[in-house]
Amino acid sequence: MASADYWVRHVREAVRFADGIGVLASEGVTRFLEIGPDATLTALAQNSLPDDSDDSDDSDDTGDAVFVSMLRKDGSEHLAVLRAMAKLHVDGADIDWTAVMGGGTGEEPVDLPTYPFQRQRYWLSPSQRSLGGPSGPTRASVVVDAEFWASVASEDVPTLAAGLDLAPDALAPVVPALSKWYHRRQEQAAIDALRYEVSWRPLTRDDEARPRAGASGTGNWTVLVPSDADGDSREMMNSLVSGLRRQGLTPHLIEVDAADPEACAEALRLPADGTGTSDAPRRPDGILSLLAFATSVGPAVGALNALRALADSRIPGVRLWALTQGAVAVGRTERVVRASHNAVWGLGRVAALEHPDVWGGAIDLPERVDDRTCTRLTHALTRLKGGEDQIAVRPHGVFGRRLEPSGPLPQPAVPWKPNGTVLITGGTGALGAHVARWAVARGARDLVLVSRSAETAPGAAELRAELEQAGAQVTLRGLDVSVHADLAALFAEHSFDAVFHTAGVLDDATLLSTDAERVDRVMRPKTSAAHLLDQLTRDRELSAFVLFSSLAGTLGSPGQGAYAAANAVLDALAERRRADGLSATSIAWGPWAEDGMAVAAGDRRRGQGAVTALAPQLALSALGAVLDAGITTQLVVDADWKRFVPAFTTTRPSALLSRLAVPVAASGTGGAARSGEADDSLRSRAAGLSRDSGLRLVLDEVRKLAATMLGYEGAEQVGAERAFRDLGVDSLIAVELRNVLASVSGVALPATAVFDHPTPKALAAFVYDELFGGEAAAAAAPYGTTAIAVDEPVAIVGMACRFPGDVETPEQFWEMLADGREGIGDFPTDRGWAALEPVYERYANEDGKAAEYVRRGGFLSGVGGFDAEFFGVSPREALAMDPQQ
User: Fold this and answer.
1) What is the C-alpha to C-alpha distance for residues 222 and 249, in angstroms, rounded to an integer?
2) Sign (positive/negative) of CA torsion 69, 72, 75, 78?
3) SS3 at position 60
4) Predicted TM-score of the model (pTM)
5) One domain for residues 434 and 539
6) Which residues pair with 32 in a beta bridge?
7) Which of 167, 523, 533, 873 is 20 to 30 A away from residue 292, measured at CA?
8) Domain limits at 60?
9) What is the pLDDT of residues 193-232, one digit of tens each?
10) Distances in whole angstroms, Cα of residue 4 to Cα of each of 17, 18, 27, 35, 516
């Protein structure tokens, strides 16, 4: 340390700091460390070198010299010291890290891993819609503007006054108002970025492609007609069929029971003799379904049964087109006549994703069907480009459905405020609770929250206490809103001013696993309840009638056919109410964060990662803005369309999204052409290789597609022999993987392909054999094989079987059948199924069934030693599954 005299001379005489730095530099010193409370000397030292190097901050080199400050003002001392040590270490200085890190911090050195670093980023990317200040054309202007608006937002008057060279008193009255304006504009901009609306675009010759099936005038079309259609519908169908004949098509009418899936399947089953009849062509060029006009079953069920029948029939190249009437309103002068028919459209959007090779599309007919209608319908069926699968035929043209960004919302003259009692269905659920808090903040003082559980719902008591503390009177009612008598009794007790319908049920399943019961289970609390609310409020002047719809109903979502159908009806119902002069708003929501239904169901939808869950507060702000503006229908979603559209259109194009982003590898000829191009590439690459090399090529493709479907970074994360189930493939992803694989290979794959071949390696072998058929088998056959005559006797050298009831041989099985015995017995005790008694009691108490109902079943004996690993089953799943599956 220097003496006191040294410091006195520094005060009285010239410091000669620059000379000191120059001497040190001439002696070869290249590292300068400032020990002090700030970095003042570090900056001066850089300017004092003999070569007068350019200025830079303390992290930059000046020539060969490195200048480091130990501490920085207004910063963490601990981090500043570590940062200084790190900079010196990088420059080659010898740092005693044991002394640096061993000062009571608790850190211990560990060995570096022997495997290479994977360099995989797990952090979420910053939101593109974060609220910040206006941006300018340059980086400097962005920084300046951000600093200014940050000061405005925080109402930092002193900082603004200093920057503007004004007295703080002069800005005090202005800054709060400016801050309020800024926050309002930022919120409005954020809401506008989330809002989208459906429009109808007139289709012209530019939308035509080469003629599809039937365009030459010889096309055979199977027309499914419900056997229970009413008189008006039957008259319309007859006019339609006659008009199609005059257009040169050959329609074959088949009456079926729309509620009977087997009847629909039988109607589409090809004749075994291969000849066909005048009423049942050997192979139709297309299927027209009029089952939406059935009276014994809902339109969604009729469309579902027709789709499943065609999918099961596996008629190659044939697609199903579902016809509705008055389901959509193309212009403001139109009125939705049959809102229930919109269920066909919602279900069809899911069918296009799950069965792109089977679903043709939905076409809505006008109220009057004449020759002009049939001409335009024929044109839509035979000449429009691929991707046009949501079409409305009208007397003044043919229109295609489009989704596009909404314009800025107008400023409302008077924001919505309840004038009386507010009814919220699903009021104790996650969304209903958010809406209840929002309504109270808007001025509601009387709330009726309806749900099946009511007071017993989790968090209901806390929600009531919170709302009452905010000044509202809260009534919790437990009832089923889809039951007319219960809902009518509620309306008799209360005079409602506003209705918010948030109730809903998720019961996801693929369309092939969906039946009428599942459709009814999903649609009753959503659609049936909405129709009842509409009926019971038509004679009341409501300030708001708000329906909570879903992104699934607007775009479609794999595995949510019933849910999409239900939500599509809500949108149509709102349009009908608005046309009738009644209040109505239907908002199709993207997923809500925290505790929304989509979050609870998991993120297994196409476009995974391209849709960000909405923060509840932002979603509620959007709800208020849309309601204030009096908008009828709106989609509110935070989507990255550049990522979403390519994922959404992987297996078939979609004209619906053409105004949002251009899909990668878009093609005007549709998915079939794209598949052909991919097929030629894959086939040609594999055809020039040996079987082993070709299999590796197809396997790489399977692994790459599986990684994309699962959201993995790359194909290397998908093990070739790892079971799809362990990778996270469920029934929905299996359907999508099958569709995408069929698209890129050009091979028609069965719906169960992924389940039948449970590993990427097995699936790749299957696809390879489907690609090359007998060629692959011939190439793989060893030399010297001998063909066997077709009439050669077949020798059975062994048989084996196992069935419940201790049956282990074919003889025992035959004896059991001959004796009329059953294979039902007690629950096995060798499978690790603990605590069975509480299960018996719970079923008996809740379902009112005898305990013996679940004490017995059909189980194989002696399977406790099931080798789960050998069959690719994970240990956790092995504990929960029944090995005999």
Assistant:
1) 11
2) positive
3) coil
4) 0.69
5) yes
6) 67
7) 533
8) 4-101
9) 999 999 999 998 777 765 555 444 458 899 999 999 999 9
10) 18, 21, 27, 19, 96
